[in-house]
Amino acid sequence: MSGLRLVTVGGMIAYRALFNWTRPALFIGTLFIGPLFQLLFFAYLGRQLRVGDDQFFLVGNAVLTASLACVFGGTMAVANERRFGTLGHVLLSPRSRTAIFWGRVLPYAGNGLLISVFTLTVASLMLGLSIPLSALPGLALAMAAGSLACGFFGLTLGALGLRFRDVFVISNVAVAVLLLLTGVNVPPGNLPQWMVVVGQGLPVTHAAEAARMLAAGRGLDAAAPAIGQELLVAAAYAVVAALLLKFFEAESRRRASLDTL
Amino acid sequence: MESDYAIEADGLRRSYRSRTGWLRPRLTTVDAVRGVDFTVRRGELFGLLGPNGAGKTTTIKMLNTLLIPTGGTARICGFDVEKQTREVRRRIGYVFGGDRGLYDRLSALDNLRYFAELYGVPARDQRRRIAELLDLVRLAGREQDRVEGYSRGMRQRLHIARGLLHAPEVLFLDEPSIGVDPVAARELRQTVANLAATGTTVLLTTHYMAEADELCDRIAVIADGRIQALGTPSELRSRADGRRVVEVEAYGVPDTALAALRDLPGVRETAVETRGTLQVLTVQSDAHVDVQSDVLRELAGIRLGRVDSREPTLEDAYVTIVNAS
C-alpha cells in the first residue's frame, strides 16, 4: 500500500516539482499549441507531396505529439534533481528507487495521452477527418501505450543524467529521431532497412501503427498485436531505466560522480 | 543490531580520482580523507571542525552512505555504511547549509509531504509529524508559500524539518548556519540544542567556533584528511594554555608585515581574518612574553582600529591545532 502511495502521490508531487512547463502559458503553448501546428505542418506537407493521406499523417502525428511531454518530462524527472540540488536527498531515501522513479513517469504519460487526444480531436475537426466512434476506446488504448513507452524512454534518457550533465542534448536528438524513425511521417517502406529496425525498438512506432488500423475501422482485434508490442517496448525501457538508475547510483557512490548534491 | 555507539569510524579513507586530457589522459588521485577514527555515543552532540578542504563533508558523505570509503569502515547504530545502506538510511537525517536542496516551485508543505513519502513516514502519521516540525522550525503559517520566496534562514529551517521527518536517530548537520543572519543562527543553535536534549545524536560541522563551543559535547578537529585533535571544548581550549593573544584590527596590512609578526620573539601563531576591508590579526604568544608593543611597532604606519589583549579562546586553540597539522 505504501509502495502504491510512493508511486502515485510521490509521482504527482515530483511532477509538480520537476516539470518545467507546469505554468499555464508554458503548458498550453509548449504542449498543445506547438504540437498541433507540427501536426498540421506534416499533414499539409503530406498533401503537397502526396506521400500519404490526411489520416496517415494526422493519426500518426497525434500519437507522436505525446513524445514532447513524455520524453522531456521523463528526462526532467531525474535530471532536474541536479538543478535543484535535491538529488542527494532523494538518493538518501531508504525506499525502492524503481518505485520512486517509475512513479514519476505516470503523470507524464497521462499528460502525453491528454495531448494526443487534444491534437487528434482538434486536427480532425480542422481537416475534416472522421473517425468511427467504435474506434475511440482502442485509439485511447494505443495512445496510452505510446505515451507510457515515451515516458519510460524519457526516464531512460533521464537516468543518463545521473552520469552526464548535459543530458537534455540527448533528449533533443531523441525527439528528432522519433520524428524520423517511428514511421509517423515517413512510411517505413521509404526508409533504409536499418532505420526501420531501429524504429521497431523506439516508442510510438507500434502505437502509431495500431492507431492507424483503428482509425481505418479495422477493429481492436487487428490492432491488439501492435498495442502489445508498444507495451513491450514500454516495459523494456522501464527495465533499462531501472537498471541504469541502479548502476549510476552505485557508480556515483564509488566514483563520487554526483558532485552536485 | 544494537550498538553502544551511534557513529563509529575506523580508519576511514577516501580518495578521488580524476582524469584530465583526451589525447594523453592523466590520472590524478587526491586523498581527501586519510584514515579517520572516532566514535560518537548515542545522544551526543559531536562537532567536526576543520578548514575548507579538510575532509569534513567527505567524511559525512561516507557516513551517510552517499560515498563508499576507499579504506576503513564505518557503522551507524551498528550498521555498515557500505553494505547495509537501507538500514543506515532509515536511521539518519542529513541537513546541509545553503540555498539549494529544496524544490523551489513547491510549498514547504509539499516539500515535506514528498520527502515524508521518500523517507517512509507512514501515511497516517504524516500530517501530524509535518505539523510538529513546522512548529519546531517556526514555519507554521508559511507552509503554503512556495519555497522560491523563502529567505535563506527559512530555507535552512525547512532543511532541518526535512532532515527530521522520519525521526532519525542520527542527524548530520553540514554547516547548517552558513550564510544565515545572527538572529537566525541563534534560533538554529537553539533548535539543534533542543534536538540533542531529546536524545537525537547530532554530528555537526561548522566554521563557527562559538557555535561549536556552545553546542558540542565533544569536538574533533580535522585537517589534511586526518583528525588532529579530539576532546571536549575545554580540553581543546587547553591546547592554547600558557598563551596570550593580542588581537589587532587593521586595514591594508602587507604580507611582509605579517611575516615580520610571525618572526617576533615569543610569537607562537598568527592568523588573519578578513572582513571586507578590515583585517583582524590574531597573534598568539607565550603568556610570559608581552608582544603587544613589538606587534604595534611592526604595524607602524598602517591604519589600526581596536587593539586588545586577552585569554585564548577555542578559536585560538583551533588555529594552533590546524597550523600544527
Summary tags:
heterodimer; A: 261 residues; mainly alpha; 11 helices; 79% helix; B: 325 residues; alpha/beta; Rossmann fold; Alpha-Beta Plaits; 2 domains; six-stranded mixed β-sheet; four-stranded antiparallel β-sheet; 14 strands; 33% helix; 33% strand; globular; antibiotic resistance (chain A); ABC-2 type transport system permease protein (chain A); ABC-type transporter activity (chain A)
What does this structure look like?
- The complex is a heterodimer of chains A (261) and B (325).
- Chain A is built from eleven helices and no strands.
- Chain A is mainly α and 261 residues long.
- The mean pLDDT of chain A is 91.
- In chain A, 79% of the residues lie in helices and 0% in strands.
- Chain A has one domain.
- Chain B has 325 residues and is α/β, with parallel strands linked by helices.
- Chain B folds into two domains: 5-231, Rossmann fold (3-Layer(aba) Sandwich); 242-315, Alpha-Beta Plaits (2-Layer Sandwich).
- Helices cover 33% and strands 33% of the residues of chain B.
- A six-stranded mixed beta sheet of chain B has the order 6-7-8-3-9-10, with helices on both faces. Chain B has a four-stranded antiparallel beta sheet with strand order 2-1-4-5.
- In chain B, strand 12 (267-275) and strand 13 form a beta hairpin.
- The longest helix of chain B is centred in the middle third of the chain and has 16 residues, at 182-197.
- Chain B is globular, with a radius of gyration of 22 Å.
- At the A-B interface, helix 1, helix 5 and helix 11 of A face helix 2, strand 6 and helix 3 of B.
